[in-house]
Amino acid sequence: MTVSRVDADRLTALLAPLADLLADTVESGASVGFLAPLGRAEALAWWRARSAAVAAGHLAVWVAHEGERVTGTVSLALPDKPNSRHRAELVKLMVGREARGLGLGRRLLTTAEEAAAAAGLTLLHLDTETGSPAEHLYRSAGWTRAGTIPDYAADPHGELRPTTLYFKRIGTPATAG
Q1: What whole-number distance in Å separates Cα of residue 27 and Cα of residue 103?
Q2: Taking the mean position of all CA atoms in its chain, how far away is CA 12?
Q3: Over the stretch 4-27, which tens digit does the pLDDT of each residue have?
Q4: Could you count the other beta carbons within 10 Å of the beta carbon of residue 9?
Q5: Are strands 59-66 and 69-77 parallel, antiparallel or unpaired?
Q6: Neighbours of 171 (CB within 10 A)
Q7: Peptide bond preceding 150 in cis form (omega within 30 of 0)
Q8: What are the residues facing 86 on neighbouring strands?
């Protein structure tokens, strides 16, 4: 299995398997911002819209794949404000059901963290559904819980759920001068 960062053209070439991964993730109950059932057209449109952000350098996307078969993905949303260029938000860490429990989530997380550090970022943050399996992954990977917000987002079935915020320092912060 290969994990590679994709540019806008490669993202476009992988729209169909990425859409299938997103639909599978939502169908399996993971809270990634969508309600079930997620139609294929909606999943395709969502990924298609990400391509402009990738091309502009505001979103970095990694895809785990075997040929054209996509098994996972993770992204970093990069702020464009001068006072926040030291950090990024980890978003849309997804692993297909057939690949869960094999260490792929950890591999994708590590890939994004290492790339962020190599790019000079020093702080990452994320939010995840409180009590979700993802929380164990983040805690075991050294992420620090910052707090919980009640009724923050609806899960795929429409039930409001709390969200826990996490952060991780990945380098030495630069001093503002």
Answers
A1: 21
A2: 18
A3: 999 999 999 999 999 999 999 999
A4: 11
A5: antiparallel
A6: 14
A7: no
A8: none
Please give the pLDDT value at position 67. 81
Closest CA to 73 of 21, 28, 20: 21
Rounded distance between C-alpha atoms, residue 172 and residue 177, angstroms? 15
Report helix, strand or coil for 169: strand
Q: Are 66 and 2 in contact (CB under 8 A)?
A: yes
Angle, nearest 10°, between helix axes 104-118 and 133-140?
Answer: 50
Q: Please give the Cα distance from 45 to 10 (Å, whole number).
A: 16
Q: Which domains does the chain have, with CATH numbers?
A: 2-169 (3.40.630.30)
CA 75/CA 126 separation, integer angstroms: 11
Asked if the bond preceding 17 is cis, omega within 30° of 0, the reply is no
Per-residue exposure over 30-42, b if at least 16 CB sit within 10 Å of its own CB, e if not:
bbbebeeebeeeb
Q: Pairing state of beta strands 59-66 and 87-95?
A: unpaired
pLDDT digits (tens, 9 = 90+) for 65-74: 988 799 999 9
> Is the CB of residue 31 less than 8 Å from the CB of residue 132?
yes
What is the token pair recorded at 128?
A: 């995840």
